[in-house]
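The records we work with from here on pair a chain with its fold. Each token is a code from a learned vocabulary of local backbone shapes. A record is reproduced here so that you can trace the correspondence yourselves:

_____
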Amino acid sequence: MCACVLADLGADVIKIEAPEGEVGRRITPYLPATNPPISFAHATVNRNKRDLTLDMRTVEGRDIFMKLAKTSDIIVQNFRPGTLVKWASVTTTCAR
């Protein structure tokens, strides 16, 4: 919800999702007359955001994320503690 509020206030928010998409996309009910179906939960929490699909488990996905991070004012993430730091150090090591 933090990024949702920031987007509501005018921030340019880019939501990064895994290739399979977040679970909120598959939760019913779906908004009427949407094709492909858009879930109410996804539409509510992700309003005013742009979407980007990245596989953060790959070096290429992490490299793209790191390029975006370098030009961002803030990053909001919900990984387990230490996950993002671990991925960043792997990306930095591989990019050298």
Summary: The beta strands are 13-17, 49-53. Residues 77 and 84 are 8 Å apart (CA to CA).
